[in-house]
Amino acid sequence: MYNEFRACSQRAQFSNNFRKTGLNLFHRKTAAPRLDAAVVALEMLPTLKSGYDPTALYIIPRVQTQTGEILHLDNAARHHTRLWLTGAPGLGKSSALQFIAAHAGHGAARYAFADDDLQKLSAPARHDGWILLDDATDAAHGAQLAALAQKFPTAKFCATAADAQYAPADFTVLELVPFHEREIVSFAEAWIPLPARGARDSKLNRAAQDFFVSVQANPGARELAATPLYLFMLMQVYDPAVARQAPTSNAPQVAVPVVGGGAATPFDVPQRNIVAALPARRAALFDAYVNAQLARASDPEFAARAVEGIALSAQRGQTMQDDHLPRGNDFLVKRANGRIEFRHALLQ
Question: Domain spans of the chain?
Answer without folding.
Answer: 8-176, 181-283, 297-347
